[in-house]
């Protein structure tokens, strides 16, 4: 039995558009975010999903709905998995990006920032900086975050142990949590994280996760290769 996980970051939200840090803050999809989700749905139109899981934040649920609306196969119900929730940025939630940079510089210094981005697992390193900066809030470390999503995906995969063939599972979650998971599998994540409404494929077979592709815009799209996001 092979479980093919289609891991998707939600479409653009209003907080994304305003260039603010978004973790557990819930924010509606923008028109562009909706279009992104529909376009990805076009790309995945002929994939028969056995199940669909999202976090408990509405932006992931809405993204999944728009993806499924384009699908020509039987549409399974959307199931909520709180373990897919994004990192809580604590006191830095919804901070404007232009204010975040000088704040980080003041608190930990340029050297630590540069060192974090130079790490092979740079998402994990940068995630841990938030833990260092905000000790008053229960911000997860990268290791804790990775353990949480890995445990959640394992629980999902094990539900299909009795299947005799391959199954496809759509998972719609968030940038940090998905990026940390992929880095934990030794995958290369873009410097600025996984993009909105992109899909990464990870297979689960014989007790192991294996990366197939990362941050893909198109797989088998009906649309022209010249289409933009």
Describe the protein.
By secondary structure, this protein is α/β, with parallel strands linked by helices. It has eight helices and six strands, in the order βααβαβααααβαββ. A six-stranded mixed beta sheet has the order 3-2-4-1-5-6. Strand 2, helix 3 and strand 3 (78-80) form a beta-alpha-beta unit. Helix 6 packs across helix 8.
Explain briefly what this protein structure is:
The chain has 229 residues and is α/β, with parallel strands linked by helices.
**Low-pLDDT residue intervals, each spanning 5 or more residues:** 221-229
Helix- and strand-based class? Answer: alpha/beta
Mean pLDDT, rounded to whole units? Answer: 91
Q: How much of the sequence is in beta strands? A: 15-25%
Strand order of the biggest β-sheet: 3-2-4-1-5-6
How would you sum up the global shape? globular
Please describe the topology of this protein.
Blueprint: E1 2-9, H1 14-17, H2 31-43, E2 51-54, H3 58-69, E3 78-80, H4 97-108, H5 110-118, H6 122-133, H7 142-158, E4 167-173, H8 175-184, E5 199-205, E6 208-216
Parallel strand pairs: 1-4, 2-3, 2-4
Antiparallel strand pairs: 1-5, 5-6
Helix pairs in contact: 2-3, 4-5, 5-6, 6-8, 7-8
Label this structure with key terms.
229 residues, disordered C terminus, single chain, 6 strands, globular, 17% strand, alpha/beta, 39% helix
